[in-house]
Amino acid sequence: MLVTQILNTKKSNGVVMVTQNTPVKEVADVLSARNIGSVVISSDGQIPEGIVSERDVVRAISKHGEAALEFQTSAIMTRNPYTCEPSATADDVLSLMTEKRFRHIPVMENGRLVGIITQGDVVKAKLSEVSMEKDALENMITGCW
Fold first, then answer.
1. Coil, helix or strand for 116?
2. CA distance 68 to 70
3. Could you give the CA distance from residue 39 to residue 133 in angstroms, rounded to a whole number?
4. Looking at residue 2, what is its pLDDT?
5. What domains are there in the chain, each with its CATH number?
6. Could you count the other beta carbons within 10 Å of the beta carbon of residue 129?
7. Reported pTM
8. Are 126 and 38 in contact (CB under 8 A)?
9. CA-CA distance, 36 to 110, in Å (whole number)?
10. pLDDT tens, 108-127?
11. Max Cα-Cα span within the chain
12. How far is 93 from 78, CA to CA, in rounded Å?
């Protein structure tokens, strides 16, 4: 399964973006309101300069207390995030996410941001793929084509 297929199954390919100057409190509000786990940091809406996840917000609050909510996003973002292309395989992306310990990856095509997928998106796609393979094998064995 390819990343492009995963993007096609998502309800929305829209990537929620903020700038490096956005206050952390505003990022937390966006994450909560949209029920998402990360936002991409981009000044031009095309190139990801960073990414901020729920974990980043929690770590900043744990370390700096309530003052962290007034920080600019640039203070807590992961700079130059890993990205993938639509032609990447789900297995390769899942391996990278597992190895590097992150759950969200921006998808780039021709130097532009075209979507974002999560570890959950990839796992859901893999489970669907395994289920279809199981059904096909069962049908082959029982002769029900």
1. strand
2. 5
3. 34
4. 94
5. 3-142 (3.10.580.10)
6. 13
7. 0.86
8. no
9. 26
10. 999 999 999 999 999 988 88
11. 65
12. 18
